[in-house]
Every structure is written in C-alpha cells, then in structure tokens.
Amino acid sequence: MYKIVTFVLAIAKFIVMPFRLWFLEFRGHLTYFGVELSMLSPDTATIKKETWKMPQNRESGARANEYGRETAKKIAEKISAKSISKISNEFELQGQKITIRCAKHSTNDLGVTYKMLERVDAIFAALEQKNGKYELYEISPSMFKNNMRETKSKGAAAGKVGLVRKSVFVNDGEFICSVKI
To answer: Per-residue pLDDT for 13 more than 80?
Structure first.
C-alpha cells in the first residue's frame, strides 16, 4: 500500500505543482482533487474520499452573484413574482416580500444578508437538480436565523451575510414547485 501511495504522490506532485491546482498539504495529509492521502507513516497510509472544496475568491464570488441574480429573475418570472428591487433578489409574490436564493447542484450553502432578513417575509431556495430543473423551497426568516452561521469571508460580505445549508431548506422547508428555465 505504501508503494501505491508513494507513486500516487509522485504523480500528483508532478502534475499538480506546476499548475498549482487544488493541492493542499496539511498536518501529514495530502489532498488532491478531493481525495485525501494520509501520510502519517508507511504502516498507516490510507486513502479516503474527502469533501474539501476550494474557497470562493473575488472572481468566483462575482460569477456566483451574477448567476444568482439572473437565475432568480428567470424563476421569479416563472412563478409570477414581481421584482421590487433593482439591486437585490427581492420580489413580491401574492402580497409577500420574498427573496430567491439560487444554488447550483454542487453548492451546499445559501447566503442572505442580515439586513435582507429583516425586510423579507420568506426565503425561497431555488436548488438546481441534475436534470436542469430547479426545486423551490421556502423557509421563514426566523428559521433561517436559527440555522445560520456567519460567512467565513474576509471581504465585503464579512459580518454581513449568514449562510444556511441547503439541506435545511429540503428537510425543514416547504416544497413549492419545480421550475424549468
């Protein structure tokens, strides 16, 4: 097993290091494209799947913001919600102020600013499915607050945005509908 791990490490360093692709060395562990190689000793060398992801940076955050705004507008149109803000994903639906937060299939968290939580009556999560459709779930601002954690961002969102796992919407929220955009 040690020879296999050593060979994989040699290949990983040859391929990854020149390109600086998702490579993390930490406390005797080597993570390469989501696979953790434990290198504490040759006797205990193990390989296991890990769920580590690259943190968001300014560029990927801007892309996510653009995706969220555009997708929310399309979904709002499908469910007959009217935009009430030019600068945020806030809409009116049947007399209720809502925000539509969008997440691609691989995204685990949805974020809402603390100020927005005070303005809206409901938070809708539009969760992309593997088939391209979006499933809409609704939770209240109080449920969002009870399940949120602060973002780890050190940028503009620091201290302003709360995150909730999409599983909270799926497990505890109310399913609204499926939408194809």
So the answer is: no
